[in-house]
Design brief:
Layout lengths: L4 H10 L5 E4 L3 E2 L5 E2 L4 H11 L3 E5 L23 E4 L12 E4 L1 H5 L21 H16 L2 H17 L7 E7 L2 E9 L4 E2 L6 H11 L5 E3 L2 E4 L7 H24 L6
Helix pairs in contact: 5-7, 6-7
Length: 262
Amino acid sequence: MACLEPLEELLAARGREIASLIIEPLVQGAAGMITSPPGYLKRVREICTSYNVLMIADEVAVGFGRTGKMFACEEEGVAPDIMCLAKGITGGYLPLGATLTTDEIFEAFLGSHEEQKTFYHGHTYTGNPLAGAAALANLEIFDKKQVITGLQPKIELLTKGLATFYALPWVGEIRQKGMMIGIELVQNKATKEPFPFALNIGHRVTLEARKRGLITRPLGNVIVLMPILSMSEEELTEVLDITYTSIKAVCADIVGKGLVTG
């Protein structure tokens, strides 16, 4: 896999100087909803292990069902050394984060007072009981209502609906992993030439969608869809319909005004 070669070359050359690698598993959100190819994450884990470099999985955005599994790492049977969690742990109701480690790492900070192994680190709001209660209630819902199992038909509905977006001449690529979606808008579908940055096309589309009852966000020319897990299939269909119509209206208007060719 060519995209792994730079990593392996770096660790081969400087692995003894590198303590850890931090990776957002499967989907690199803020970069534009970039999805990794199948097998990439598992191979990253293998490379880190071979060079004795800790693998830290940032599951703040991708965890708690977003990719279709409870945690994104599960998709490829990967166990990181450290896992960072937040956002979905409380269902988004209250801010809470958690850091999970292997026993080996945890035990490195255990010892007598004289050994000075204690990890003296904390935050002002550490252990907030209200946020903790929200997280426990959220995890109970995941368990009792079988949230992860119920996501599969919703993901299939999204995948099928998103395929129709390719009929629009301005949709260059659709990247989806479970309930995480990025729709990249381009000026030229054949060449993937992007819209001029000054046009702020993504922002225009999200404003149009807002008029039609949908709040979403852009990442440059990429329209981000991350519907809440509890949405019904009818609501998800409405999300897709509004997004499709908004893209079509905005892009056709820009072309009609001669701001770009299309």
